[in-house]
Design a protein that fits this description.
This protein has about 325 residues and is of the alpha+beta class. Bound molecules: L-MYO-inositol-1-phosphate. L-MYO-inositol-1-phosphate binds next to strand 4.
Length: about 325
């Protein structure tokens, strides 16, 4: 099968936006219902691998809707989704167009009525992310992107805006950065300790000033609680970078396209090649680092500036051993 053309991708995007907005209505109704139920006994919230890995009936409902709609509209397309994978079906990628879907990214936020949860709809073609739609119905923020065609934010009351929202600024070092990290749902010491040590090093002052060895004293660290919205915020230019180990391809697929189209640089583990192309290994590798579009300068290209930040970042944080299959 030939790769999807630019005009086919445009049509798919229009259709996917309608799907995302319909899913958003279910999320809004679900959020209300969960808060009402929380006042009684049955919350409809279930645990997956542990008590912080949550799934609600609305995650399942939205994924079922999305799967059904895709099957009817694009019967030859493959499907990878968070809840389908949780039920034991995470098929390897093929060259066929494949929707890669997180029905509710930020389920913990969703359960707690913290209004940063979204549906994340990515499309992979020939094993590369090519289209992304991220919709946060609580704020009515819609992020969209097509490979080679730019990415956009649509919000109430203002015309759709091309991303990033502002001209690219330089970034001298991590000590100037506002960055996002996440705690994730794997709370074993072997996973949490290297992350916490890394967060400390990113935040702390140097030893000379009473901090820690390797302290970068970044401006600050944020956790939005949704990988997709972290990617979107990097694309927008509100975050300098975002790092997470332990999330999955459905959390990041749409965000990768949106961030890259906004000039962002995406890579995987410290061992991934740093040429900016998101290969299958990176997409499914459960380790992600994205740096916003930077202004180059003084003989340094924008890409070299991003690679410099990636290098500094990986020299600062610890790696975490995780299983890429479970
Ligand atoms: C969540 C991510 C979040 C991460 C969690 C989880 P979910 O996705 O977006 O960034 O820290 O471990 O993977 O489960 O809400 O779809």
């Amino acid at each position: 099968m030939a790769p999807l053309s630019a005009s086919e991708l445009k049509d798919i995007l229009e259709w996917t936006i309608i799907l995302a907005r319909n899913a958003g209505k279910i999320m809004l109704e679900g959020s209300q219902a969960i808060q009402i139920a929380a006042a009684s006994e049955d919350t409809g919230i279930n645990e997956k691998k542990n008590s912080v890995d949550l799934v609600t009936e609305y995650d399942v409902k939205v994924e079922e809707l999305v799967k059904k709609e895709i099957r009817e509209k694009y019967p030859s397309f493959k499907f990878v989704g968070e809840e389908t994978a949780a039920a034991g079906n995470r098929p390897p990628l093929t060259d066929e167009p494949t929707f890669c879907v997180d029905p509710i990214d930020g389920t913990t936020n969703f359960v707690h009525a913290f209004p940063f949860a979204c549906i994340s709809l990515g499309l992979i073609d020939e094993k590369r992310p090519v289209l992304g739609v991220i919709y946060n119905p609580f704020l009515d923020h819609l992020y969209t992107g097509i490979k080679g065609q730019g990415s956009y934010l649509t919000r109430p009351g203002v015309p759709p805006a091309k991303l990033p929202l502002h001209p690219a600024r330089p970034l001298a070092s991590l000590s100037q950065a506002l960055l996002a990290i996440e705690w994730g749902s794997d709370r074993k010491a072997s996973v949490l300790k290297p992350k916490a040590d890394s967060f400390t090093r990113l935040a702390a002052d140097t030893v000379a000033n009473g901090g820690v060895e390797g302290g970068k004293m970044a401006h600050s660290l944020r956790s939005i609680g949704s990988a997709a919205l972290n990617f979107a915020m990097v694309a927008q230019g509100g975050l300098d970078l975002y790092w997470e180990i332990g999330c999955w391809e459905w959390d990041v697929c749409a965000g990768i396209v949106i961030a890259q189209e906004a000039g962002g640089f995406v890579t995987g583990s410290r061992w991934s090649p740093h040429d900016g192309e998101v290969t299958e290994d990176i997409l499914r590798g459960r380790k992600y680092l994205v740096v916003r579009g930077l202004a180059g300068g003084k003989g340094e290209s924008a890409l070299d500036a991003q690679k410099r930040i990636v290098k500094e970042f990986y020299e600062t944080v610890d790696d975490v051993d995780i299983d890429i299959n479970k």
